[in-house]
Write a structure and sequence with these properties.
Elements (H helix, E strand, L loop, with lengths): L19 H6 L3 E5 L2 E6 L4 H10 L1 E5 L4 E6 L3 H6 L13 E8 L5 E11 L6 E7 L4 H12 L4 E4 L4 E6 L3 H6 L13 E4 L10 E4 L8 E6 L1 H12 L4 E3 L2 H10 L26 H4 L11 H9 L6 E8 L10 E3 L5 E10 L6 E8 L8 E6 L2 E8 L12
Parallel strand pairs: 3-13
Antiparallel strand pairs: 1-2, 3-9, 4-7, 4-8, 5-6, 6-7, 9-12, 10-11, 11-12, 14-17, 14-19, 15-16, 15-18, 16-17, 18-19
Protein name: aminomethyltransferase
InterPro entries: GcvT (IPR006223), GcvT/YgfZ/DmdA (IPR028896), GcvT/YgfZ_C (IPR029043), GcvT_C (IPR013977), GCVT_N (IPR006222), TrmE/GcvT-like (IPR027266)
Organism: Thiomonas delicata
Length: 392
């Protein structure tokens, strides 16, 4: 790798991931993000990184995100008191998407939750990955609400790598021969080749790009050797936060703080699919989480839902960005764009937005206000490009 130094001012006191030196050597453009110095792109550029992920495999450093272990005999029930998903029914070696809700039904953060064997072989534990900007508040929330019921261990130094794209698993298989046995949302421990590292790694077949791929939780001492080994594999190139954002938008996946927040319920965010039936229908384990009264009432009576998250596709090739107001044919404001871009694969301006529920019907025509002009858009299905998860 050619050396290319990127300076991050010392006075910024930005945190560094275990791969900081690798990013510098690769010539990454570093930016402040959630308190960390993170690569937004490499010399090839965001568009090239995006396209390469869709065609082959890209390596993302997401070590800034929070990793947390929850243990104890009451761990599942304790987590269900904070998360409206079926934790108790999550099989060993499986993972689910979910979110923390607050007492009025807003989304505090979204997360991935895995049920895994303990690395020492004694029992099992729940492993959470939470957003970087929310991890401090998430820990405080959990310790306040369930800290006496279970053990909550943050893993602030643990690295997290995401290898994403149709060639990702085949590439990783050269290092981990059995990794191809995982299906979408399976997760398991693996041993690294001794030349790379000596600590076990935890691999889930998941990601946030809409592509097949894996996320790898790895000891900080082994993170750099593993990243270097992956980048030496044919077809694997580095990618930064810019491509990650455009990829997740095409996949119709929310970005916390933009497409959902504490002012948004899971039903308004169109994320009720993540609530399994046992947590939302009449029964012993339905409800029992913060904000359940409001969220379950919205599920029972759609008339209570004043707005909905939708996908939009522009009729003209005019990019529509976050914050753009949406109006109806009469010029009345009916919503706002929360994410938007002209993305490489979709090749049309796409956006996610919140609109009045009456305007959320597929095919409804709305107008985005861009520099004082109306850009016609239509409510569209999401994802905007096909997801290619491997489920079998």
């Amino acid at each position: 790798m050619e050396e290319f130094r990127v300076s991050v001012p010392a006075e910024s006191v930005l945190l560094q991931t275990p791969l900081f030196m690798v990013h510098q050597l690769l010539g990454a453009k570093m930016v402040p993000f959630a308190g960390y110095a993170m690569p937004v792109q490499y010399p090839s550029g965001i568009m090239a990184e995006h396209r390469h992920t869709r065609a082959a495999a890209s390596l993302f450093d997401v070590s800034h995100m929070g990793q947390i272990c929850i243990t104890g005999p009451d761990a599942a029930a304790a987590l269900e008191s904070l998360i409206p998903i079926d934790v108790a029914g999550l099989a060993l070696g499986r993972q689910r998407y979910g979110y923390f809700t607050d007492d009025v039904g807003g989304i505090l953060d979204d997360l991935m939750l895995a049920h895994r064997p303990r690395a020492d072989g004694h029992g099992s534990e729940y492993f959470l990955i939470v957003n970087a900007a929310c991890k401090t508040q998430d820990l405080a929330w959990m310790r306040e609400r369930i800290g006496t019921r279970c053990s909550i261990e943050a893993m602030p130094d643990q690295a997290l790598l995401a290898l994403q794209g149709p060639a990702a698993v085949a590439a990783l298989q050269t290092l981990l021969p059995d990794v191809d046995k995982l299906r979408f949302m399976d997760a398991a421990w693996f041993a690294l080749p001794p030349a790379i590292g000596r600590h076990p790694i935890f691999v889930s077949r998941s990601g946030y790009t809409g592509e097949d791929g894996v996320e790898i939780s790895v000891h900080p001492w082994d993170a750099e050797p593993l990243a270097r080994a992956l980048l030496e594999l044919p077809g694997v190139l580095p990618a930064g936060l810019g491509a990650r954002d455009s990829l997740r938008l095409e996949a119709g996946l929310c970005l916390y703080g933009h497409d959902m927040d504490t002012h948004t319920t899971p039903v308004e965010a169109s994320l009720q699919w993540a609530m399994q039936k046992v947590r939302r229908s009449a029964g012993a384990r339905a409800g029992g989480f913060p904000g359940a009264e409001k969220i379950l009432a919205q599920l029972d009576d759609p008339a209570r839902v004043a707005r909905k998250r939708v996908g939009l596709v522009a009729e003209d090739r005019v990019p529509v960005r976050e914050g753009a107001e949406l109006v109806d044919a009469a010029g009345r404001v009916i919503g706002r764009v929360t994410s938007g871009s002209l993305t490489p694969t979709a090749n049309v301006p796409i956006a996610m937005a919140y609109v009045e529920t009456v305007a959320s019907v597929l095919g409804t025509r709305v107008f985005a206000m861009v520099r004082g002009k109306q850009v016609p858009m239509r409510v569209s299905l999401m994802p905007f490009v096909p997801q290619r998860y491997v489920r079998d």
